Amino acid sequence: MCLPIQLKIGGHRCVENISRSHCPVCLGDIHTSRIPCHIPDCGHLLHKMCFDQLLASGHYTCPTCQTSLIDMTALWEYLDAQAELMPVPKKYENQRIYIFCNDCHKTSKTKFHFIGLKCVHCGAYNTTQNVKRRMSLVADEPTSAYLDAQAELMPVPKKYENQRIYIFCNDCHKTSKTKFHFIGLKCVHCGAYNTTQNVKRRMSLVADEPTSA
């Protein structure tokens, strides 16, 4: 296995048998591969070549655990600025959403904003809605059906009813352009709410702004 020479510098802590795994991108064996590997902060090894391809395609999170692969501070600051420029309607300004942060691995209750759901602990927008917390109240209903019903009960303001968001579905692995709703972004292909916003498509419109890429 080929490791980055930078690991010789500093206090790297070796983890036994960490290389006895497959690259989550190409599924090639890490230990026997002659391709240099990359070790992100989360510790899930992947080939350096695959890591570069992920970033080039606009995917900035670990395929295994969804933790950010690089420093995303510049993007979080950009989203903060966008959120200030586009305040939510007064009707929803006290709305709070239960979330789980993929970066600091903490749960919290954060303010709703259609730009994104910001972690109150680390400030990241790499978050997902805490469906388990929400579904504990309706265990007898399927998740998607429950969210569909909630979306009908809480229509978005007319100002935003034509808003469309580019998303990637983590279930059917397809991209699409879906209607915005603060309940969640629904995949138009399979109907799942297990989706993430397509950051690359969004950032292509603001290439002159600082990004973590």
TrEMBL record:
Protein name, as recorded: RING-type domain-containing protein
Keywords attached to this entry: Metal-binding, Zinc, Zinc-finger
GO MF assignments: ubiquitin protein ligase activity; zinc ion binding
Pfam families the UniProt entry points to: zf-RING_2, zinc_ribbon_6
Cited InterPro entries: RCHY1_zinc-ribbon (IPR039512), Znf_CTCHY (IPR017921), Znf_RING (IPR001841), Znf_RING/FYVE/PHD (IPR013083)
A GO CC term assigned to this protein in UniProt: nucleus
Organism this protein belongs to: Stomoxys calcitrans
Record-level GO BP terms: protein ubiquitination; ubiquitin-dependent protein catabolic process
